[in-house]
Write a structure and sequence with these properties.
The protein has about 140 residues and is α+β, with helices and mostly antiparallel strands. It is built from three helices and eight strands, in the order E-E-E-E-E-E-E-E-H-H-H.
């Protein structure tokens, strides 16, 4: 990807991050851990790695399960694991949750946000699928 520039961040991250050279905005939905409520957000992607993505937003984003409206490095789902304010904006880190094709297809057939781009009526279904994918991927 020529729009990505290799860049090692000066912290304790376990994977190398690639800093974006061009603007990359992203629409995503989050089912928050706190309220199990769907929230739509537009964020700016600041860096990516094979394990996750760093984003910036004008508003605080609560940790929770993430659905990317468009794939990022082939990934559709993730978990927003941290969020903090930096100056006038907010930074957050999202860990990818690789989904099996059949899992993603099941969610599409259920009329989830992958097809409608609207809030999901039954967030517990997405949560169950993501937890299953997290458990499966952590054991491999």
């Amino acid at each position: 990807m020529d729009y990505l520039k290799d860049s090692l961040m000066g912290d304790n991250r376990s994977t190398n991050r690639q800093q974006l050279v061009v603007d990359r905005n992203c629409a995503l939905g989050i089912i928050t851990f706190k309220e199990l409520a769907w929230q739509d957000h537009r964020v700016h992607i600041t860096d990516v790695s094979k394990k996750g993505v760093g984003v910036e937003s004008d508003v605080r984003i609560e940790p929770g399960f993430v659905w990317f409206k468009d794939r990022i490095l082939g990934q559709r789902g993730g978990v927003l694991v941290w969020s903090r304010q930096e100056g006038t904006h907010f930074r957050a880190g999202i860990r990818f949750v690789p989904l099996k094709p059949e899992t993603e297809q099941q969610l599409q057939q259920q009329g989830g946000p992958l097809t409608s781009h609207q809030p999901h009526a039954r967030p517990e279904e997405i949560i169950a699928k993501l937890i299953d994918s997290l458990t499966t991927n952590d054991q491999s």
